[in-house]
Structures are given as C-alpha cells and as structure tokens.
Specification:
GGDEF_dom, binds ligand C2E, binds calcium ion, 26 helices, elongated, eight-stranded mixed beta barrel, 47% helix, alpha/beta, Beta-Lactamase
Length: 705
C-alpha cells in the first residue's frame, strides 16, 4: 500500500484532442468525451484553450480566432493541485494548461480531473488504512494466542536476556520451581541450581548453546523449597538480525514421572510380568554376582532348579487363567519359604530357581529343598478348582559341581530332570551319571522323531472279554516301539512324545495302523450280533493341540477321515481318554467329543478311579464306558478300600447306564470278585497279553473253536 502524494501531472486530462476547428473535431468528438481544445501555432507554440461551449457557439470559426478572449496563464506543473483548484475557482475556469519549468506544454488539468484524482487518492488511503487495521488486529490476535499458550502450557518457560537475567517466566515455571513470577524476574537461572552437576556439565551446556544455538537434556534442579528434582530442559538462543544473542528461551518439564516410568520399565525388563519375581536375565546377573562373590570370599552356594509336576496338564485342562493364578500363588510361597538374601526367580513357564548362599553344605541344602517341597505340596483352591501341586527340584553347588553360572544352571536343570525321572515331588543333587541318563533321553527323543518319520511304530491288540460269557467283545490298540530290536515301554515313549510335541504324529500313525487292521479283522471274523469294538488311546495333548489351533474339528476331521479311508464303520471304534482329561472343563474337548459321538464313535474313560471325577461332567459328555484302573484291580483281593472303590464305580456306572471294563485282570480270583460286583468286561494277562496282528489272528481263531 502506498500513500501516494498527488501532483498535477497525476491530474492531467486524458482525452485532449488537438484539432484546429470544431467542425473537424465533431467527427471524432462522437467517440470521445473531450470538452476542451488546446490551440497551438503552426510553429508549435502554445496559444491557449478553447472550451467546447465556445466552439459550439461559433461552429464555423477556427479555434485561433476564438482565442481573442483573455487566456488564463498556464499553471506550472510544480504548483500543488489544491492551489491549482483554488485558482480555477478564483478565475472561474474549468480547465488550465500545464507547463513545465521551461514553459513547455505538458497537458491540461480540469476541475473534474483534479477532483477525481483526489477522490481516488482518498479511496486508496482508506484502503491502505483498512489493510493496516486488519494487520494490526491479526497481530493483536496472534499476541493474545501466544500469551495464552505461554501461560497455559504445562511446560515451564523461562526467557533470559543475553546476560542471563530472567525476563519472563510463565505460570508452569512457577508451579514446577516454586518461584513466583515476580520473584524470578531479574534473577538468573542460578536460583535453580541443585549443586548436583559440576562445572564441566554447565560448560558443556554453554558450549553446545554457543555452537548450535540449542541444548537439550536432563538436569537436576532445585525448587524454592529446596527439593531436588529431575527436569527435562530445552534451551534455545534467540538472535537478532545481526546474529547476536538477545535472549535465551528455556522450556522445562518436571521429569519425576519420567524417572518413575523408567524405573518401572527397568523393573519390567528384569522381572517376570506375571509373578513379579526376577526373570531369567536378572537371575543370571545375580547368579554371576553370587558366584563371583563366593569365589572371592572362599564361600559356597547352591542353585535349586524347581519345576512343577503336571503343571502343563493344569494349563491344558483348566486353562491358562487358572494356570497363571497358580503360578502367582506358587511364586509367593517360594518367596516366603526362603531367606531374604536368597534370590527366587522365574525362568519361564513353570520353572523357578533359588540361589542360596547360606547353609550350603549338603544337609543345609537338603533342609532348604525339603522346606520348598513341603511348601509347594499343598492344596490350592483356584476359581473353585482344588489343585494338588508337587514339584521336582534339581540342585547344583558351587564350587563342587562347577565354577561358572552357565555350568551350574545347566547342571541344576539336568538334576531336575533326573529328579522327575526318579518320581515326582523330589529333589536331586546333580550327578554326572544322572546327567548321562538325561542325555540318553534327549537322544531317545531324536530317535523317536526318526522312528515316526520312518513309520517304525507298530501296534499290539489286547483282547477284551465279556465277563459273563467269556467271549471276546473287543480289543485295545497299544502302541509299540522297538528301536534296534529293543522294546521301549509305551509309558516312556508316549510321555516323551507328549513332551516333545510328537504325540499328534504318533497318534495319527497308531490310528492309521489300527483302522487298517481293525477293518481286516472285521472282514476275517464276521459275527452275528454286536460287532467287535476297537479301542484306541487318545492323549489329552492331542485334543489340546487341536483346540489350540482354534480348529476344534481338526482332530475329529482327521480321525473320521482315516476311518473312512479304511472303510471302518464308526460304531465299532472306541476312544480311550484318561479321567482327568475327560473331566477337564477345557474348551474344545466337549466339541470334539460331540462331533465324534455324533459320528457314532464310542468314548471310554480310561484309568477310572485314579482321579476325582466329576460325575456331572461325565454325564454331559457322550461317554459309553468306564475303564476301572489297573491299580484298583491289582489289590482287589487284599485291599478292602480298593474293593469299595471298585464297587462304587461299578454301581455308579450302572446308574449312568455305562459299561465297565476292568483293566489289568491277572488272576481268576480278581475276575471272580469283579464278576460278583457286576463288572461287564475284563482285559488283562489272564485272557491275553497285548498281541501283534499275526498272533491276534491265531488267538481269535482259537476263541472261535
Ligand atoms: P493303558 O491304556 O491303561 O493300557 C493298558 C496297559 O496295561 C498296557 O500297557 C498293557 O500292556 C498293560 N496291561 C494289560 N493287561 C495287564 C495285566 O494284566 N497286568 C499288567 N501288569 N499290565 C497289563 P502298555 O502297553 O505298556 O501301555 C501303557 C500305557 O501307554 C497305556 O495304558 C496307555 O495309556 C499308553 N498308550 C499305549 N498305546 C498308546 C497309544 O497308541 N496312544 C496313546 N495316547 N497312549 C498309548
Ligand atoms: Ca487305555
């Protein structure tokens, strides 16, 4: 916007036509709005003005003749326009000629052109003013916003001049530091110094500010109250156009919360989120420290590796939520059972460790291990589930067993596996021979994997006979594995398969073989009435992995597919699942059973009488049979309690309309008792050992005779 000064030149009339007579002018005058004529001599000398009115009065006179009238003198182009306008007023003329300093013609001004120019200038001025006003308002608004932000921001702001005199602070500054605005202004940031940083710290800060114009970092400051607190500070140097520092602006936020957060993150990184115990990382640090200190002081220490027995089953059968709660309670118990200086850690899953540096001679450690075992052998009540837990503990000692943290951990872990192998709920000191057995187990699982790949698993059939008639009613498929010709007990390799995740593959292979052979037996030994039934064992881990895939039909589909493939009718197939697995409330299990039950498959509850069954659950599932556990049958003749349990099971089964199969019947005496109790079916060495297919054929042939 320019506030322009008007001169006469700005007011010159635009449409001045230089003609010598009005007649001639008229032709052009139609298209123009010229109202005055300038008359020159033929030599170009300026003579004067003729107005349109004069010209119109004397249309046939040439303009030179009309100039007889007194001509007002021309006006110099340096005369201000307002004086020019006054002159026109005084002389009662509407037009004036304009000449330059040398008297040369420049143009004509009219009152109208001056007034128009003046009005335009007025308009321009007003516009300029409006724009200025608008800019000013914007500026005011911006300042208002800046002030509001300055005051409202949660970060403290402090502005000092180049000499570090505080010029400006906001409310947040006062809130954080305790210094009121009035108190702070005029002071230097020295009022905030905590004394926690040395000169080098501040020097580095100033060097950085000079060099880069900014500094950022954590700093300990002191409040007015004297409290020292951590603060996150950001300083910027503000320079003028010449590049000289005029101000420093510091933005500061109380970092106490950040510190707490960092401490929390640090805690999370070194502690187990579920139980709050030190995690593997912190445990290894502590073990390393403990070993170093024991070595320095000529001391000893013991490492106890604790693994819960059957925890995976709890997780699988009752769900992870129950499992997690159990782990938390166990963590608390462990912590309360050891001394304050001992470290209890959770390495993951159901594995815990204890590092103890006190009383680490053999008897001392035994006392600790026994205390831990008895603390854990405990009945837990979690969400209405009564759970009995036991643990196995492996122990290694420094310096006897090893002198590095890694070796001690590995040995304690091995010893724990040895403890489990001997029987659960025990502790075991590391020993080299035990370690060798452990290595054997690892090798065996590799061998089992290979066996599955090469289809080395076979099956044996154990017949089941009707106790009333003595005739065969079905048979039980039992997996067999003889690597290098030496049979391995199914209890061993089935557990191994469950532990190593090979159980699905194994289960599927057994079902393939069993379905094929069962179909062949049905064809070879046709019989009237109820057909023979073929029982197949199902591991709870198989059901779990199907459920875990969120594809509960997966296992059922696979099984039904295999039966169809071998043309085996579903109504002759029976699945055996242990009591604990059946009665679990696990998601997925009842769906699978329902699908299989709907397809016509029978379900038998295996090892019945060993767990604490919930009858209501059994009733909800499509269960057809109960298999009385061998441990109950074994002592039937001598143990009245077992006899009572067996009687109760049989009575209950009848009430539920279920058949009962007694397992492990070895003697006529046992058979007689079971018969009087009303047991329907028996299976055991008394009738036959589990037989491979060829021997089963001869056995069946003999039965038929
Ligand atoms: P189980 O299902 O209770 O099978 C019966 C076990 O008792 C078999 O042991 C059988 O040989 C044994 N037995 C039968 N009659 C007598 C007897 O009169 N006296 C004695 N002392 N024992 C008898 P086995 O074959 O060693 O199998 C052990 C366990 O391994 C089975 O117990 C079963 O739980 C599991 N198992 C076997 N095959 C498979 C399989 O294909 N899949 C799954 N998931 N588990 C299997
Ligand atoms: Ca069984």
């Amino acid at each position: 916007m320019t506030n322009k000064e008007l001169g006469i030149v700005d007011c010159l009339c635009p449409n001045v036509i230089l003609v010598d007579a009005y007649q001639r002018y008229k032709e052009v005058a139609e298209q123009t709005d010229a109202h005055v004529f300038v008359v020159f001599t033929e030599q170009g000398e300026l003579m004067g003005l003729v107005t349109e009115r004069q010209a119109a009065l004397f249309p046939n006179r040439i303009f030179a003749d009309l100039l007889l009238r007194r001509q007002p003198p021309p006006v110099d182009n340096s005369v201000p326009i307002l004086s020019t306008l006054n002159r026109m007023e005084q002389d009662s003329v509407n037009h004036l000629m304009v000449v330059d300093g040398k008297g040369q013609y420049v143009g004509i001004v009219s009152r109208l052109s001056i007034i128009t120019a003046l009005v335009e200038r007025e308009r321009d001025l007003r516009k300029d003013l409006e724009h200025l006003l608008l800019d000013y308002r914007r500026e005011l608004e911006n300042r208002r916003i800046a002030t509001a932000v300055f005051e409202a921001t949660s970060e403290g702001i402090m502005v000092t001049d180049a000499k570090q005199r505080i010029q400006l602070v906001n409310r947040a500054f006062s809130k954080t530091t305790g210094w009121a605005v009035k108190e702070a202004i005029g002071q230097t940031p020295h009022i905030l110094h905590s004394g926690k940083h040395d000169e080098a710290f501040y020097k580095q800060m100033w060097d950085c500010l000079q060099e880069t114009g900014a500094w950022e970092g954590e700093i300990w400051n002191r409040r007015k109250s004297g409290d020292i607190y951590p603060e996150w500070l950001h300083i910027n140097a503000i320079r003028n156009d010449q590049g000289e520092v005029r101000y420093y602006a510091g933005v500061l936020s109380d970092a106490t919360h950040h510190q707490e957060m960092r401490a929390r993150l640090h805690h999370l990184a070194y502690h187990d989120a579920l139980t709050g115990l030190p995690n593997r990382q912190l445990f290894l640090d502590r073990l390393t420290q403990a070993v170093a200190q024991a070595r320095r002081d000529g001391d000893s220490l013991a490492l106890l590796f604790i693994d819960l027995d059957g925890f995976k089953e709890v997780n699988y059968t009752l769900g992870h939520l129950v499992g997690d709660k159990l782990l938390c309670q166990i963590a608390n118990l462990l912590q309360s059972a050891v001394r304050e200086n001992d470290t209890v850690a959770r390495l993951g899953g159901d594995e815990f460790t204890v590092i103890t540096q006190t009383g680490t001679d053999q008897t001392g450690v035994i006392t600790i291990a026994e205390k831990l075992l008895s603390t854990l052998t405990h009945q837990f009540n979690i969400d209405g589930h009564e759970l009995f837990v036991s643990a196995s503990i492996g122990i290694s000692r420094f310096p006897e067993d090893g002198d590095s943290p890694e070796v001690l951990l590995m040995e304690a872990d091995n010893a724990m596996y040895q403890a489990k192998a001997i029987g659960r709920g025990r502790y075991h000191f590391y020993s080299a021979s035990g370690h060798n057995r452990f290595v054997e187990k690892v090798q065996m699982s590799a061998r089992l994997r290979q066996a599955l790949a090469e289809k080395e698993i076979t099956i044996a059939w154990q017949p089941q006979v009707d106790m009333a008639t003595g005739s065969v009613v079905g048979m039980d498929a039992l997996a067999r594995w003889s690597p290098d010709g030496k049979a391995v007990s199914p209890d061993l390799f089935i557990t191994l398969a469950e532990q190593t995740g090979l159980i699905n593959q194994l289960g599927e292979q057994v079902l393939q073989i069993a379905a094929g052979q069962a179909a062949a037996i049905l064809a070879e030994y046709p019989r009237a009435g109820t057909p023979l039934s073929f029982a197949i064992n199902l591991s709870p881990f198989q059901v779990n992995s199907a459920g875990k895939d969120r594809d509960t039909d997966n296992l059922a589909d696979t099984m039904l597919g295999i039966l169809t493939q071998h043309g085996l009718p579903t109504n002759v197939v029976e699945l055996e699942l242990t009591e604990t697995a059946v009665t679990s409330h696990r998601e997925g299990i009842s769906d699978i059973f329902q699908t299989l039950g709907d397809a016509g498959i029978q379900i038998a509850v295996d090892d019945f009488g060993t767990g604490c069954s919930n009858l209501a659950t059994i009733k909800q599932l499509p269960v057809h049979k109960l298999k009385l556990d061998r441990s109950l049958v074994m002592d039937l003749c001598d143990d009245p309690t077992d006899r009572e349990i067996a009687t109760a099971v049989i009575t209950m089964a009848r009430a539920l309309n279920l058949k009962v199969v007694a397992e492990g019947v070895e003697t006529e005496e046992q058979a007689a008792i079971l018969r009087t109790m009303g047991c329907d079916i028996a299976q055991g060495y008394l009738y036959s050992r589990p037989l491979p297919m060829t021997e089963l054929r001869s056995w069946l042939a003999k039965q038929a005779d």
